[in-house]
Amino acid sequence: MRLSDFTSFEGVKAAFIKLIVTLFALILIGDLVCEVANRLTFLDVLALFAFFLLVSPVAYFIRERRCPPRPERPRGGAERAPVLPPREDDEE
């Protein structure tokens, strides 16, 4: 949102509703995560960790296969040297 959105009543009202909905969603998601975390045992957490450890490389290779190869960028310094403005005391 831009600052100019707060100059009208409708803009303030929309921002307030967006803030309330966002806070409600964060509280709901946090409560859901706490409920799930309380029900997990150590073996469940270990199994989830192993699952993500296996799925992550698979997702990486699928992404690399679908995306075209990126062109190589030239390595090295700047393309051109910076030109500094002349200083006044160098004229003498």
Give a written overview of the molecule.
With 92 residues, the chain is mainly α. Helix content is 61%, strand content 0%. The protein is built from two helices and no strands.
Into which percent range does the helicity of residues fall?
55-70%
What gross morphology would you assign? flat
The helix/strand series, from N terminus to C terminus, equals: HH
How far apart the termini lie comes to 54 Å
DSSP strand content: under 5%
What structural category do the secondary elements indicate? mainly alpha
How many helices? Answer: 2
Largest sheet: none
* Contiguous runs where pLDDT drops below 50 for at least 5 residues: none
Q: Please, what is the average pLDDT?
A: 84
> Which value, in Å, is the CA radius of gyration?
27 Å
Number of strands: 0
Tell me the layout of helices and strands.
Elements (H helix, E strand, L loop, with lengths): L8 H31 L2 H25 L26
Sum up the structure in keywords.
single chain, 92 residues
Summarize the structure.
This protein has 92 residues and is mainly alpha-helical. It has helices at residues 9-39, 42-66.
